[in-house]
Amino acid sequence: MNHNVVSRLNLSRVSKAVGNYTHVTKIEPNAAFYTFSGQIGADLDGNFPEEFNQQVDNTFLNISNLLKSIDLTPDSVIKVNIWSTEQIDWDYFDKVYDDFFGKPYPSMTVAYVNALGLEEIKLEIEIWAAK
């Protein structure tokens, strides 16, 4: 983690985290702040697999490629927003998430929604980063 820009805190006076996230992520002054459009489960050719977990894999590949393209790493990510139209297979998702981010985790929000931008999209993940 880029310790001179980003720090993560779990606080004792709020409920214990119920997932892989940190309650508070602090960004130091003079850091560059990045916001990204949500990434989806399409492959590099724009095709959407039917299987949800394959969309999970593709989404994280797309996030990885996005970060690399501007010389950022998963440690630079400070916030993750997850929207899903289907029940998330948390055993699978948490393994992919943990392999990608490791501990300490960025702050996170999860929401189940009725639909996303296209009918084929089952998962969308938006990230924010600082460096």
Automatic annotation (TrEMBL):
Pfam families assigned: Ribonuc_L-PSP
CDD domains noted in UniProt: YjgF_YER057c_UK114_family
Protein name in the entry: L-PSP family endoribonuclease
Taxonomic lineage of the native organism: Bacteria, Bacillati, Bacillota, Clostridia, Lachnospirales
